[in-house]
Amino acid sequence: QVQLVESGGGLVQPGGSLRLSCAASGFTFSRYAMSWYRQAPGKEREWVATIPSAGGPPSYAASVKGRFTISRDNAKNTLFLLMNSLKPEDTAVYYCRVLVDRTESWGQGTQVTVSL
Q1: E strands present in 8-109
Q2: Pairing between β-strand 110-114 and β-strand 10-12 as defined by DSSP bridges
Q3: Which of 62, 63, 64, 101 lies in disulfide reach of 68, CB 3.0 to 4.6 Å?
Q4: Is the dihedral of CA 58, 59, 65, 67 positive or negative?
Q5: Could you give the 3-state DSSP secondary structure of residue 53?
Q6: Residue in 102, 94, 55, 99 with CA at minimum distance from that of residue 74
């Protein structure tokens, strides 16, 4: 079955950087678009970025464009999110997501906290 496992979260100061990873298994990773979402305390889960399966540019939410970079390593079945110039409002649990055969799957999430 599809399994997604996020890692790389932590506590970082404003202006700092983190790189999140999402290890995927149970499906042919290279064939599917992958996305990152986040959920801040008391707020709904929101889309952050998507990378196509092959070719084509990634897309980003306006709130992270120019600061975050989504990428993938198809040989290692891993999705990444490089987050630069982090702000306190980026504090959230970050999830990776995939839609396979009309069924969406989510990881367990990784906590990112941006604070002094």
Answers
A1: 10-12, 18-25, 34-39, 46-51, 59-60, 68-73, 78-83, 92-100, 103-106
A2: parallel
A3: 64
A4: negative
A5: coil
A6: 55
N residues, the chain:
116
The C-alpha R_g of the chain, in whole angstroms, comes to: 13
pLDDT tens, the chain, 116 aa long: 999 999 999 999 999 999 999 999 999 999 999 999 999 999 999 999 999 998 789 999 999 999 999 999 999 999 999 999 999 999 999 999 999 999 999 999 999 999 99
Structure tokens, 31: 């064939």
Q: In which region does residue 109 sit, left (phi positive, over 0), alpha (psi from -120 to 50) or beta (all else)? A: left
SS3 88: helix
Per-residue CA distances from 90 to 3, 9, 26, 52 (Å):
25, 12, 30, 23
